[in-house]
Sequence to fold (285 residues):
Amino acid sequence: MSYQRYVAIGDSTTEGLEDPYPPHAHLYERHGHSLSPSHPEVAGSYRGWADRLAVHIADAQAEPLEYANLAIRGHRLADIRATQLDAALAMRPDVMTIVGGVNDASKISWDAHAVRGHIGYLFGKATRSGAVVLTFTMPDPAAINWLVRPLRRNIHELNEITREEAARFGVRVLDVAAHPVGVDPRLWHADRLHGTSLGHQRIALGLAYTLGLPGFDESWARPLPPADLGTWWQRRAGDRAWLRDYFIPFVRRHRRGESMGDGRTAKRPLPTVVGPEMSPETHTG
Fold:
């Protein structure tokens, strides 16, 4: 089976943080796209698992694939529902990815009932359009960053809601949370929230397998070789750096009512053909 159009909606993980293209490849500069403050230079474009999945789909078929990515960093499920879903469906995709909820789960005032309503609405409307819809679950945040243990219950509930609503509407789920490799620190950026290039690569491979593309299998979940996690003192120094560089700025933005997505537009707002500039052979990572 071949696909004509793939559209991705969601938050920062779908946008591609923190998996940048090489410095010279500003693929989305014309749309005002830029890197996050974690990079010395904000000029550049994020790649991410959705771009990588688009390449996998395009490479698996003779017909060209059009791809759009409407995701905005910082968006919650209500934002995705209100500002991305209808625009995505108007493009008449035959493949969609819908991934969100972590920004909702990061709030102390977690509302599982509201989250279920949003996810059910997103999944239901997308599948009724005739698109093949994919999503994935989130790994245990406390296994990646013990300092966010209070969020473990929220993410667990988000995953259960995702699985249940996906089963209700026929959405295909890559269950990242069920595989130990999902919490390998090498798959996670220093912010302990977004994937590294390797993390995005594994997600894209898993989604390609979930979509049923030829040549993909369960090897996306294969464990990495044992890693040197450093001494106790080195790990505590990493905790202090995370608090200083990522957590405190997040709290300050939250108190000001700001979001990383304020004023941002989608990096790839219109379906355009996947070309060699996105190829893994051109840009490794």
